[in-house]
Amino acid sequence: MTIGYYICDMTFAQKIINFNEHLTYTGLALPPGIGIMNPFAGDMSQAETVRAIGRAFYQKYYNDEERRHLILGINPGRFGAGLTGIPFTDPKRLRTECDLHFNIPDAHEPSSVFIYEMINAFGGPEAFYKKIHINSAFPLGFVQMKNGKEVNYNYYDSKALIDAVRPAIIENIQKQIAMGVYTDVCFCFGTGKNYEFLNKLNQQYNFFGKMVPLEHPRFIMQYKSKSKQKYIDKYLEAFHSV
């Protein structure tokens, strides 16, 4: 995976935009049947729209040289970052919560609903993104054909895929740190396999002082929606503690 480079006097926005727009996977071969989803490449008109979204979003919320704490999700999904290029931000939230309007398909991602309810409880996008930078363990998505339909796939869903992308995940974390994130604490979306993998990696490489796991937004929306406020409060307590 190649991810570009950073110049010391770049703003945080410029570093993220540079990261995204040079993001390609050139690592080990993936297992049969697993494909890469790269919203910044592929269909040129769609990719250019995604790049334009990224420039507008990051220049709006990250156009400074302040440090932030990092959240690592799993890998992007088709209906959130797969369409907008912004982690946990589907097209609807991009318009209604971020006031950024682009000609992209309307889509609804439950994880994005939770994230922006939490962000609004934090104080809104400007306050939240001033303190937090969201990325993923693996910054591109994976897809698999199932019953004739393309579906999301997680990097940890097979040992063969983990083995193939492990070097790229290590490189990705190193690049996120190089952007200027704090290294005392890294938050992790997912208290199961994502946390287990990232925590073991952190114990080996000492990227961060500690990894703090938080229940994944999709898990909350799918299985714990009646207790959603409890998880919002848990997120806020975690973020306000650093």
From TrEMBL:
- Gene3D superfamilies xref list: Uracil-DNA glycosylase-like domain
* Pfam families per UniProt: UDG
Ranges for domain Uracil-DNA glycosylase-like: 60-239
Which residues lie in coiled coils?
A: none
CDD domains noted in UniProt: UDG-F3-like_SMUG2
Name used for this protein in its record: Uncharacterized protein DUF4918
Q: Which organism is it from?
A: Mucilaginibacter yixingensis
